[in-house]
Structure formats: structure tokens, C-alpha cells
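Sample 3 of the quickstart, ligand zinc ion:
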Amino acid sequence: MQDIQTSSSYILRGTAAGNTLRVVAIDATQIVEEARVRHELSKTATAALGRALSAAALLAIILGKKVDSRVNLRVQGDGPLGWLVAEGSAEGWVRGYVREPDADLPLRTTDGKLDVSGLIGSTGELAVTRLLDNAEPWTGSVELVSGELAEDVAYYLASSEQIPSAVQLGVYEEGGRVARAGGLIVQAMPGASDETLAALEANIKAMGSFTENLRNVSLLEVMERATKGLDFVAAPQAQSAQFQCRCSRERAVASLTYFGMQERQSMMEDGGQEVVCHWCNEHYQITPGEIAALGAPDVRAQA
Ligand SMILES: [Zn+2]
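Result:
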């Protein structure tokens, strides 16, 4: 049996119905487990951020036009989580964080599942920003329709990007760890027939919850179930994906240049300064020597 705790996350692609459906899916188990550990997320916060990380990775593939493009997904609801942010890149790296990592809720009494929409809130906004290295960022947003995220991302794609799609996201925890996590987006391309869309909808309905499927079969089989009877063709190569931040020790040191000389002096007298990256919760201990090496603040702007 495959050891899912040590295997890395990956993205699979495929097409169906004569290229009129495009399928992208991610096994984000390792990414979400790393996010849980890094941010010390509660159970329900793990599920919420895990769904968002999976969605960001898939949106980066669908919406990313260039190799160096990134997609930033921000969800601001009225629930106890506050907000969450997830970012994905066309290269397959993902990072993200939430406002209140400790926030949690009891299991839903209706079905005994994690109350993700309760934690996020069912009223609020989902915003998607495309970041390109050499262009202005572009943001689109929609009101939350459920707070469960999959429906919200599907609504965003349909109304803001004119991409009709089926979206599934899920995180399954076992023994306090992330056992399986991931997501799937089936995108209807121009020319998709009504019969194809009806068959896709029927498949998705028959599948039940994404998490339930991912618990029992491989990611590839989940894609096959979603496109059953629609001549699914898997792309030959999987793309690896990982939780990876853009921060570095150099950037952390450079961030201290925003402080004046007096503040830097007191940091040095205190034995250094800790800089924490919000995205990945990495703690950088900056030494007095590194602070001194920054030199004098640039005062020319004030002259
Ligand atoms: Zn970081």
C-alpha cells in the first residue's frame, strides 16, 4: 500500500468528450498536512484552508497564462475563521494562511461532518487575483454562495470568468493528521454539448462527496468517475506540487529597512529581531550583526 504520508502532492490533467471538457485534479494531501503543522490549524481550519489551497493550485493551472503566473484566492466570510488566503502558481507550488488558526466548531449535527461553512461564514466575499510578473494584477470577486468553497469557486468561475465548471474539494483527517486532501475541476470548453454537460452533472451527483471518493480510490479514478461515459483521456505526465513559500532569510532581513535607525538600534540592543512570515509561519531570528550590516536608512527621500 502506498504510504500517503511521505508521498508528495501532485496534479493530474486530462480531457473528455472530444476535448470539450478539461479536467484538472490535485492530490494535495502532503501540502495540506504541511499547512496544518506549520500554522497549527484546528481540525475545521485545516479543512477550510486545505480546500482553499487545493482550489488555488487548480485555479493557477486553469487561469494561469504564463509560466511565472500566480493566482491568489482570498475568502472573507463572517464566520470565526476571519479570512483565509491561498496562493498557487503554474509551477505547482502553493502557500496560504488563515486569520484565526485556532478557530474551530463542533461537527455538524445534521451529517456529523466538519462545519467548514460555519467556520468561514456563509456571507462574505471570494476574490481571485491573477498575479503576473510583468503586468498589473487583475482581481475578480463574487459574493459567497455557501461558504463550503467548492460551490463558491464554481460560482466564481461561471460568473466572473465565464467558465462553466464542476468543482469538488475535500480534506479528510484521521488520527489528527491529514489522511487525504485535494480537489477536482472539470471545465466545460466552448462546444461542449448539452448531452455532455448533463452526463457530467449526473456523474458528479452520483459520486457523492469528493472526500469519500478520494478516501477509497486514486485521484486518477476520481477523475474517471467524474467523466464516466465521456471518453476520458488522461495526460501522460503528473506534475508535482508542494507547499512552498517565496520568503527567505534575505527578504526577512531586508524587511527591517522599513524601520528607522533608532528602532533598529533598539533591536540590536535587544539581541536581534524575530521576523515571522505570515504565509508559512517561518520564524527568522535576525542577528544584531545582520541588522548593523543594513547600514544607515536612506534619508535622501526626506531631503
Ligand atoms: Zn514564508
